[in-house]
Amino acid sequence: MAIWVGIMLYSFAMLSRYDNKLIGTLKNSLIICMHHLPQTIIMLIATVGLIYFSCIYFTAFIVTIPLILYVDSYIFSSIFKKLEKDMVKKDEPEVIENEESEDLIEDTTDNKEE
Fold this sequence. Notes:
elongated; mainly alpha
């Protein structure tokens, strides 16, 4: 049950941020949920605990709902920033340094000066 709630938390966040199909969103949510297990546990405790507290004290909804949203969005933003940073690193082309090409550039500039 906890895994299912974790997948649902991540799936709604991923639906708002990325454009995937339903199966892709659920699959990616499961992967991220398991990969970031400590953050997922913190979100589950905060979300379920605050909802339970709100059910006992009904007027606490005024404070607990924004608190749940704040805690979850703070964790989601840190996870998604890290994932997007890793994706950008993979997409950057690798620069290969070649000593011969530098020598050729220097040689051509020397010929133009003479």
